[in-house]
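Running low. Got one?
___
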Amino acid sequence: MRPDSSALRATYDRRLPDYDRASRNLREAIELLLAQAKIANLAVTARVKSFESFAGKVDRKGYVQPFEQVTDFVGIRVILYLPRDVPPVLDMLRKEFDVIEDEDTSDRLADNEFGYRSHHILLKIREVWASTPSFRGLDRMYAEVQIRTLMMHAWADIAHKLDYKSKEQIPTDIRRRLFLLSAKIEEVDQQFESLVENVEDYRARVAEEAAKRGEFDVTLELNLDTFKELIAFFFPGREAHEVMTQDLYDQVTSLGITMSQLVGAAKSLKQIEKHLLSKVPNLAAQAAFSYALDIFVDGFSDAQRYTPSRREIINELIKTAKR
């Protein structure tokens, strides 16, 4: 016998705080795990199934024990940039949680079909997690996690707005166009990943050549990638700061500074770097390089932008370099 609507609502409302807590804490935990694994992502979102959606599912499926049979009260969506990042995320979740179900929805599709592509897993919070304050009392809680790339997410949103539940519902002409669009979106995913890999290979070749030669090639084209590798070569082991690097690169290019000047400034700083670090310890690589440019590249330093203490350090280091 199905539970009546009022009893269903009362139980749902009583459990809702746990669903909310589980969705919020799982989202935060997955965000932290992604950050620790250095897996770039667009977003991690969470939702709790509404009572209306829950009741409708119970009615459609004819569930008699709905709170045991419905396992997607908590839903998490992970949107990644690259297809290659999906397997590491799956491995990470399998390591941290009990995975009950695991499905790649593209496996449902024939080669000549378009459709919704995503990776779905149903996970259960482990007892070890439930021993922490954030997850206490949630050891029997399930969550459905969808893992998509940005392109998969775009397609899913488009498909959702069209509101077709199966290909048989779609007019033939529109079906052909949807198939073409689906194929193009999948191709964009692949091309984007290929482009990222090409950039990584390019930067790796620059770094390997510099390491082999023991010096940085001043004949290289100056671009953001060679600029990053130049800094990494001269300031190894230092913390990298992406925004600072891009700002510094924009400043360099706006002033027309050449690769030869950059390499010369970095080399020259090595002679007085200990003195710099005695004045300003724990400098990020980009910050140290900016001091090199201030000291050794005419026209780079802008006294009006600097604090009195920075101007004093730069003037002192210029004197030190001339000795």
